[in-house]
Amino acid sequence: MNFFSKRNWVQLSDGYLDRTPIFQFILVSLIFPLWGAAASLNDILITQFKTVFMLNDAATAFVQSAFYGGYFLIAIPASLVIKKSSYKFAIMLGLIFYIVGCSLFFPASQIATYSMFLVAIFAIAVGLSFLETSCDTYSSMLGPKKSANIRLNISQTLVPLGDIAGIVLGKFLIFGSVGNLAAEMSNLHGAERIAYGEQMLQLTLQPYKYILVILLVILIILALTPMPASKAINKDNQEKRPSLKETLQYLMKNARFKKGVMAQFFYVGMQTAVWSFTIRLALNLNNSISDSDAATFMIYSYIAWFIGKLFANYFMHKFSVTKVLTIYSALGTITLLLTATIPNMTAVYMAILTSFFFGPEWPTIYAHTLDTVADKKYTETAGAFIVMAIVGGAFIPAIQGFVSDLSGSMQISFLVPMICYIIVTSYFYFEHKYELKNN
């Protein structure tokens, strides 16, 4: 226990530390892939639920609506928990909610109703909202201020590994025992179809068994580990913490902060929409492949996302962050245009290439927007507002689903995320112009 009681950092008045405590930073960073795994499993569930529950594309998007709606509703309460207690307590609470949500997949697979699965997904999202609201800001604060953006990007680089793990678990544990589920069930009717559908729903709980074990291990280690407060204080420790109303008034006067939140809304919505429907796009363009084979394209997408992060981290060390992201976003817009217009499987590969350009977007928008908050006593709640922008993931996939149903073309619906990427590109372009003008 001596290791766990050892403290080798000094807390500074602005909330940052004089040095990065390596073990604590690694522990927090290891939580990042956990929400990646949950998010990527949604992409598997959308395909599974569409067939078993006979849903249209708009209805399948409610998986993401439940998921990202939970983020939106809980982000502010999570920030208040951080304010009243600590980042560590909020992270532990998030892990507990995540555990509860995973556990709900067991009764959901027995009850076998779409609404019960949405409840389980919402419970997971509640936990993840606590985790992201806490960990995104906490990672950036665990060390000197000058390297805050680098720390967050390092932590966020692990998210694609979680996404890959989630999609691999789904590919082999959920899709692994069947070929093309839609083709299999198209020949079944009545009670036989219902029984087979329930059998397939039993498979959905398999990945969550493994996730539960990992969550319990991390929860125990975190409980035993001393963690820095990483909260801004004044020198005499007498400064009163601002209320939610005061924080909101402060942030509403910050035009660049509001633009950053808007950009995050459209970015998360776009990313979620592309990943939600890539498997469906592949199945639509090639009827001969199995669900498992189509899921492989998502593995490629997450690998591309990971590589895109690595390249971006290098470029952002050499060049202006806003310039790099402007170029990334413009190229991503082009790949989505090609995804929507090329009438063969090349479109799927364009969707995969888009994930390369997704790489640095979320952490850079987050850290860049948080940097616009000059008074760090507002940091916890400001971070929560940025996390709330994740609700874009509840709306944009639903819009894309409606476009797909109305147009009769999954491929044309990819114009929806393309428009979102144009907005994100504009955000970085004008931020770059602001940077050049003020530096």
TrEMBL record:
Gene Ontology cellular component list: plasma membrane
Listed name of the protein: FHS family L-fucose permease-like MFS transporter
Membrane recorded as keyword: yes
Pfam families: MFS_1
Localization, UniProt: Cell inner membrane
Keyword presence, Transport: yes
GO molecular function: fucose:proton symporter activity
Keywords: Cell membrane, Membrane, Transmembrane, Transmembrane helix, Transport
Membrane topology recorded in Swiss-Prot or TrEMBL: Multi-pass membrane protein
Domain Major facilitator superfamily (MFS) profile: 24-435
Matching SUPFAM superfamilies: MFS general substrate transporter (SSF103473)
